[in-house]
């Protein structure tokens, strides 16, 4: 009985060994993945050169012709036939003041002129007859000229009661109503021309000055305009530490007074690395480029700066003379073989 058990155990051990051997022979052999095919790409060279960075400054569009019209004489507002937004023409009467004192002064001056003229004519007739002295006639002639000047002065004062538009434009503010008392210097209304506009910008004193006549870029919400420097204050405001600069916009542009714009102000030149903007692509919250070296594409994380035309400033991550991939394909990955050709 014990010998039978020994034979059974040996048989089971042999069968188990055969099964293990057969299982080991059925395992597949280990294989390697072949390299990807090279991708043809266009490349460009990282260049170093003098770049003039530009800083965005806030500016405000305003009409080149603008005026706050005030009263020159004392009077009560009799008429104020205008409204904000109303177009007006040069010389159009907008405000009429009632000033009885000035009307009376004109009448008085004219009466004095009539009297002086009659006295002069009478004495001149007597002089021709030898009945008076030349000195008397000369004095009366002086009186007549003085009276005529007084009439002109009184009429000019009376004309100040009719306030007209100083130029063609549109009313932008109204400060009086009929019945108000207008005193000399009291603002009555504001008017702006619509033919030409300019940009006023406060330039920090730390930025360089720009020569008169130089052209700068001005960006609105819709487009970018070229504006010429027309005025540039050489002195800085001691409170804001800024200089006022006025840029002249081209005639006929679709802008409005008070509109916010951004002025691209040049900063001092410095050496910087630049690459074509199409070589830089987003990589999560960072930016990357692919460098072609040794027949492979190598991913580089970069930090970029300002964009100048079609080139982007690279602050870190690249060296001058390296070759970068233009418009990298979507599936391009780090280490993938590439065949590179420089952009013509």
Short description:
The chain is built from three helices and 23 strands. With 344 residues, it is an alpha+beta fold. Residues 1-34 have low confidence and may be disordered.
Question: Can you give keywords for this protein?
Answer:
single chain; 344 residues; alpha+beta; conserved putative lor/sdh protein from methanococcus maripaludis s2 fold; Elongation Factor Tu (Ef-tu), domain 3; Helix Hairpins; six-stranded antiparallel sheet; six-stranded antiparallel beta barrel; 23 strands; 23% helix; disordered N terminus
* N/C terminus separation: 95 Å
Q: Catalogue the unreliable spans.
A: 1-34
Tally of helical runs = 3
The radius of gyration computed from the alpha-carbon positions, rounded to a whole number of angstroms, is 45 Å
Helix content: 10-25%
The CATH class of the domain at 39-51 and 270-342 is identified as Mainly Beta
Give the class from helix and strand content and strand pairing.
alpha+beta
CATH fold-level label of the domain at 39-51 and 270-342: conserved putative lor/sdh protein from methanococcus maripaludis s2 fold
